[in-house]
Task: structure prediction
Amino acid sequence: MDCRYLEIDEPRRISWSWIVGEIDTVVTVTLEPTEQGTRMSVVQSGFRDDQKQNFGGARYGWTMMAGKLLEVLEGDP
Result:
């Protein structure tokens, strides 16, 4: 995997390239304050039409990691 930071706007946004083989995408994590705390969004863009399986794998991976992050934030082991 080859990654390079593309944007760092502390503490609001960080963006980096995510290159693995033929997959050349950009991941952007954005934090937005809300009345309840902070909203975090993760967007991985740049998948080609012929990379639907890779897109599905990325969606699965980000969903799994979001669940693990919630466990940590909620204090679950």
User: Anything to note?
Assistant: The first strand starts at residue 2 and ends at 9.
